[in-house]
Every structure is written in structure tokens, then in C-alpha cells.
Design goal:
Blueprint: E1 2-5, E2 10-15, E3 27-30, E4 47-49, H1 53-56, E5 66-69, E6 71-72, E7 82-84, E8 92-94, E9 98-103, H2 109-121, E10 129-132, E11 135-138, H3 140-143, E12 147-150, H4 153-192, E13 204-206, E14 216-217, E15 230-233, E16 238-239, E17 242-243, E18 250-251, H5 255-261, E19 267-271, E20 273-274, E21 283-286, E22 292-294, E23 298-301, H6 310-318, H7 320-327, E24 331-332, E25 337-338, H8 341-344, E26 348-350, H9 354-393
Parallel strand pairs: 3-8, 15-22
Antiparallel strand pairs: 1-12, 2-9, 3-4, 5-7, 5-9, 6-11, 10-11, 13-26, 14-23, 15-18, 16-17, 19-21, 19-23, 20-25, 24-25
Amino acid sequence: MKLMVLSELLELSDSGVWGDEDTLDGISILRSTNFNKDGTLDLSKISMRAIEERKRISKTLLEGDILLEKSGGGPMQPVGRVCLFKGDSQAHSFGNFIARLRPTAEVMSEYLFYYLWWFHSVGKTSYYQKQTTGIRNLEFKRYLSITVPVPSMTEQGKVVDLLARAQSIVHLRWDAQQKAAELVPAIFLELFGDPRTNPKRLPVYALGDLMVSPPTLGTMAKPSTNQAKWLDLRVANIQGGKLTLDDRKWLDLSEKEIDRFQLVAGDVVLARAIGSLDHLGKAVVVYPDSDWTFDSHLMRLRFDPLRLLPEWFIPYLSSEGGRAEFLKHTRHSAVQFNINGKEIRKLQIPLPTLEAQKLFCARTEEIRSITTQQAAATVKAEAVFQSLLSAAFKT
């Protein structure tokens, strides 16, 4: 096996295209937002830029080109991600935050792609980048000096075949997980219809009429990573529709604050003030196993359990119709989106009977069991792939 400098394995390494977007007669431009987590490219969301005719051919991607993210990122996402362009019926180029790597005949594109993916996944690209104000940049010339183990074409093919097979299993797990996640919205529509049109002619109530206490905003006390009595939930603890407690912060409440800020089983906490519209309104039902409270960017909703089940409310809020109704009552400033207690009480809810809500919740609980199993299987498949990736390239 030979060790070769990356630049020696490239027929072409080139920077991306500058220019105005959304031109009708331009060329599709791929950016880091088109990068999928599996090293493929999402070609469904593209922008167009004009390119001088003399540069168009040289800036057009060919099948087998590797795209390298050389600018962007942030503290939690170092640059250096790679994707493999597998060709498309439409011509594509690449943005100025991207570098194109075109391998020579001495190395298989897929082999070099997997090697650079491994190189980034184990944190090695962090040694080839620098942080400027608000942005990270890959030191491209230094990056091109990294060494790559280059076995024979036969051995390269074996590595690619093994990793591609392992990756296909990961894809199957992702697909199964996605299909399981789509079951809950489908069942909701089947049983209750679209809340916007209310085809089941369900009685409609204002959300405030279904609550046992007014919506409550959380404490403004500053939490700490030093453990105290009260676990303080924050917007960051709501991820993908689930409560995640990997990042915990704590504080102490005074006796007079407990009734106002304590969370109890069945409470809903909802993101009510945040910079992203997509994350405004994300919510979970909580079942505290100790003393839990919540911060001022969250709102606590406490429903009458004989009229509205919190486990039914979350899928309602996540449905297209529920989301549309929620957004009607929100506001936004220059820095964030908001909803307050008075506004959220106005939400109009087409409400099924308690028995129908219970039936729905029972069915979704079965689905959650399936999705939990799928998630565990996905984690195992990803771990196997990463292990094989490391075994193929670890030096």
C-alpha cells in the first residue's frame, strides 16, 4: 500500500461560484445545505446563479466529483464534510463555500470519498481549519497536503463494496424509522381529519376553555451546570418531538415560587419564544421523576384531563392543520418569534370525545414502541458502519 498526498490524487481541485442567485438562465448551485448526513446530496432544493459561458464547463460537476465543505460550520459543526456527486440529468455547479475534488484514475472516487468522510468523522479536519468572526474556514492548501493510504484497485474495490453494503443497511434502518414516524400523523388524519377543515364536524373549543389553569411562562432565574434541587428544562431539551436530558442545568426555587414553576405529570411544555419559526411551538408532555421546573422561553400548559389528553394535543399541534392554527396566533420581532398565554388560549381545537382520544393514544403508544426499537436498530447499524469505516482506514 502506498501513502500519497491528497493533491497528487486529484485531477482537479477547484473553488466554487460567486454570483447572484435566482437567475432564470443560470446553472444549479449546490451548497452545504444540500449535504445529507450520509454523504449523498439533496438535489431537491437548489438555487440558480449566472456563470460566464467560458467558465461554465470548468465549473460543472461530473459524476464521481467529491464536494468538500470548506467554509461555514460553527462551534458544534466543524467544516470538512464531504459528499459524493453521483450524477444527475440536470447540470450542477457548486457554491463558493464548497471545493470540488476530482480524483485521478489512480484512485476510485468512492474510496477517496469514504477516506475523507472517515478523516472528518474522527475529528482530523479540526487541525486544518481556523475560526474567524462567526465562521470557520478550512485551510484548503494544508488540507490538500494530508496523506491518503492507496492500496491496489482491487483492494480499493473491496473496501468500497464492504462500506457500501454497511451503509445500505443504515439507509434501510433510516427508511424504516421514517415510515414508523409517519404512522402517527396518518392515524390522526384518519380518525379526526384535517383540523383546518374539520371534516368529522367535531365540536370546536378555544384551548383556554380546556385548561385547568392559565398558561404559565417559566422562571427567569439563570440555571447552572452545578447540580441543585430543581432540574431546569429549556428549549434545547426538546429535540425531534422528544424530551432529551443530555444537557442538564439546575437551579433553586424559593418556597413561594414552587407552585408557579413546578412541573407535574401530564404538563405540556412548549417553546414560546425563540429565534427560529420552525422551532416555535415545539412541545412535549413531561413526567418528572424528581423536582423539575422550566425557563422563561418555555410555557406550561395544564389541561383538564377529563376533556383534553396532553398526549392527543401534541400530535394535533404537530399536524399541518394544528400548526396552521397555532401560527395564526404568533408574533415576531426583529430577533425572535413569540406567543403568549393570552394568544395561545385562543387556539380553536376541533375536539373528539375523550374515548376517541384514548383510542388514538393507545394506538400511538404501540407505534412509539416500534419506533423505539427502530431507533435502537438504527444506532447499532450506524455503529457497525462507523466501526468498519475506522477499520478500513485507521493507521
